């Protein structure tokens, strides 16, 4: 089974609204990364948060990490139609040989 | 700056035919290289990774193989394709394992008929 599982699987919002998606994982991690994938394209790295960090910001993105609950959230504020994409969390865990393990992704549709 | 190339972009192959997908990286030396497969609407499954020339680690038993004949070249192959090999194949590179972001190529859409 996959280390990271995103919730919800799909999300539809209006432009200007915030989008929040969550990632849960099973084993202790070194860090957690979020990636974005436009339809039919490769993934693009968004942000990395280390296990000793609780929150990180990058532009309109805010990532939180709660290692006690083994979960992370990605918040996109003031969404735009161009934010329409799938978003994946990926965990780096010693138990997985320090290779990234990707979740199933959250498909986000931002309606103009 | 670094660039990663994959080709072909799309491929339709009959069952039982061979496969060769190529990935090359420019602008960096001794990268870690990865092959992933993505089923429709799903996450990424790591197939192979390489930390150096000739060093290949297989993550999933299958009829696929990988080779790294040069530092910045990574090839995914099969002698005989199966229907279940259909999917979106992504190549990626990173400076190291774990705490390094990965940079992905544009992907190859493979349909086995």
Q: How would you describe this structure in keywords?
A:
heterodimer; A: 112 residues; mainly beta; five-stranded antiparallel β-sheet; globular; B: 113 residues; four-stranded antiparallel β-sheet
Could you characterize the architecture of this molecule?
The complex is a heterodimer of chains A (112) and B (113). With 112 residues, chain A is an all-beta fold. In chain A, 0% of the residues lie in helices and 55% in strands. Chain A has no helices and 11 strands. Chain A starts with a strand and ends with a strand. The mean pLDDT of chain A is 93. With 113 residues, chain B is mainly beta. Chain B is globular, with a radius of gyration of 13 Å. The termini of chain B are far apart. The model of chain B has no long low-confidence stretch (mean pLDDT 93).
Helices and strands in order:
The complex is a heterodimer of chains A (about 110) and B (about 110).
Chain A lengths: L4 E3 L2 E5 L4 E6 L6 E7 L5 E8 L4 E4 L2 E6 L4 E6 L8 E8 L7 E3 L3 E6 L1
Parallel strand pairs in A: 2-11
Antiparallel strand pairs in A: 1-3, 3-8, 4-5, 4-9, 6-7, 7-8, 9-10, 9-11
Chain B lengths: L2 E5 L2 E4 L5 E8 L5 E7 L5 E9 L2 E4 L5 E7 L2 E6 L8 E8 L8 E2 L3 E5 L1
Parallel strand pairs in B: 2-11
Antiparallel strand pairs in B: 1-3, 3-8, 4-5, 4-9, 5-6, 7-8, 9-10, 9-11
């Amino acid at each position: 089974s996959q280390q990271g599982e995103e919730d919800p699987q799909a999300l539809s919002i209006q432009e200007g609204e915030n989008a929040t998606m969550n990632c849960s994982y099973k084993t202790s991690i070194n860090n957690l990364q979020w990636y974005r994938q436009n339809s039919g394209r490769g993934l693009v790295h968004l942000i990395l948060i280390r296990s000793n960090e609780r929150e990180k910001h990058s532009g309109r993105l805010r990532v939180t990490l709660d290692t006690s609950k083994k979960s992370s959230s990605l918040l996109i504020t003031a969404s735009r139609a161009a934010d329409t994409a799938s978003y994946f969390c990926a965990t780096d865990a010693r138990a997985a040989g320090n290779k990234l393990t990707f979740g199933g992704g959250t498909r986000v549709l931002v309606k103009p | 700056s670094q660039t990663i190339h994959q080709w072909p972009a799309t491929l339709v192959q009959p069952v039982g035919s061979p496969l060769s997908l190529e990935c090359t990286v420019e602008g960096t030396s001794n990268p870690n290289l990865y092959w992933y497969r993505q089923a429709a609407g799903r996450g990424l499954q790591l197939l192979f990774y390489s930390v150096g020339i000739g060093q290949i680690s297989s993550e999933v038993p299958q009829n696929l193989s990988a080779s790294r004949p040069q530092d910045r070249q990574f090839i995914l192959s099969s002698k005989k394709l199966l229907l279940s090999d259909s999917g979106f194949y992504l190549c990626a590179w990173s400076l190291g394992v774990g705490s390094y972001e990965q940079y992905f190529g544009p992907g190859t859409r493979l349909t086995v008929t």
